[in-house]
Design goal:
Helices cover 35% and strands 19% of the residues. The relative contact order is 0.15. Strand 7, helix 7 and strand 8 form a beta-alpha-beta unit. The chain is an alpha/beta fold. The strands form 2 sheets. It has a 6-stranded mixed sheet with strand order 6-7-8-3-9-10, sandwiched between helices. The protein has a 4-stranded antiparallel sheet with strand order 2-1-4-5, covered by helices on one side. It is built from 12 helices and 10 strands. Helix 4 packs parallel to helix 6 and helix 6 packs parallel to helix 7. The chain has 2 domains: 226 residues, 3-Layer(aba) Sandwich (Rossmann fold), CATH 3.40.50.300; 37 residues, no CATH class. The chain is globular. The termini are far apart. The structure holds adenosine-5'-diphosphate (ADP). Adenosine-5'-diphosphate binds next to helix 1. The site of adenosine-5'-diphosphate has 12 residues, from helix 1.
Length: 286
């Protein structure tokens, strides 16, 4: 569904490319997670899928990125909106109107759909994302998780085949992040949407990924594989993976539940071996 053919992106007069040697495919209907240290080019790679790179950011894109056969260098983001929905970290930066219902309708305005089709799609999306009761609410009064669901809904009304999300849960508390992840899973499982998502809160998302794309260092080609396989070597990984790597688990556990189920042998090995607590230092009073 998404294809990178030997892609590199170089910004302005930067000496080195931000991403380079990117050759990969994201199959239809998968949830693929993009990971790597900060500044490694994750947003650049996502931007090349939705057309923000190079159309809005500038820079030079070499190679070819296609989404469902459409070349993102020759299609501007607006010409990809019916195919690719894009959501960032801060939903407030995304909104154009004031209420939930208007925001959902806005995403379709440039598509020239008949009013009854637009109305039906707004209703479908309100139901799909559990937003029906909030339809008349001013967006400013919603919680962070509700706002992020509206942001996702507003790019879903044109029925895109691909959803690109840049750190969609990073700014949310754990309960709100759960709400958003539940919605993403529903899209992948029920509608067959292809989701490509960068997220540094890996403990929240890695267990749901079908594949992981790791950008190990700036300008270094990505490594692609099954989540446990990539987490075993990734410089960024959640604490539960750090535990699994320390314990020598193969494959590493990706969730706390998974780790708990595997921890029996580790518990036995560590029984009675608690570190001696340091002797408290008492300072003589002056
Ligand atoms: P990440 O999302 O992994 O943090 P980015 O894709 O945002 O990485 O950035 C990769 C590199 O490209 C960084 O060095 C960043 O400063 C640079 N960069 C990103 N966007 C632009 C831009 N619009 N213009 C110039 N340089 C940019």
């Amino acid at each position: 569904m998404i294809r990178f053919d030997n892609v590199s992106v170089t910004y302005g007069d930067a000496g080195a490319p931000a991403i380079s040697g990117v050759d990969l495919t994201v199959p239809e209907g998968e949830l693929v997670l993009l990971v790597g240290p900060s500044g490694v080019g994750k947003s650049t790679l996502l931007g090349a899928v939705c057309g923000l790179v190079p159309h809005f950011t500038g820079g030079t894109l070499r190679g070819r990125v296609t989404v469902d056969g459409r070349d993102t260098r020759t299609h501007r983001p607006r010409e990809l909106a019916d195919l690719v929905g894009t959501v960032g970290q801060d939903p407030l930066a995304h909104f154009v109107t004031d209420t939930v219902e208007d925001e959902l309708a806005y995403g379709m305005e440039s598509l020239g759909l008949a009013p009854e089709v637009m109305r039906r799609r707004v209703e479908e999306t309100l139901d799909l994302l559990g937003l029906a009761e909030l339809r008349d609410r001013p967006i400013a009064t919603l919680s962070g998780g509700q706002q992020q669901r509206v942001a996702i809904g507003s790019v879903l009304t044109p029925h895109p085949k691909v959803l690109v999300l840049d750190e969609p849960t990073s700014a949310l508390d754990p309960a709100a992040a759960e709400e958003v992840l539940a919605v993403l899973q529903r899209l992948v499982h029920d509608l067959g949407t292809t989701v490509l998502m960068a997220e540094h809160r890996l403990e929240r998302v890695v267990q749901y990924a079908d594949q992981v794309i790791l950008l190990p260092a700036p300008g270094t080609p990505p490594v692609v594989g099954a989540p446990a396989e990539i987490m075993a070597v990734s410089p960024v990984h959640p604490p539960v993976v750090a535990l699994g790597r320390l314990a020598g688990w193969d494959p590493v556990a990706l969730s706390v539940r998974d780790a708990r189920r595997r921890a029996g042998a580790l518990r036995e090995r560590l029984a009675g071996r608690f570190p001696t607590p340091p002797v408290p230092v008492t300072r003589a009073s002056p």
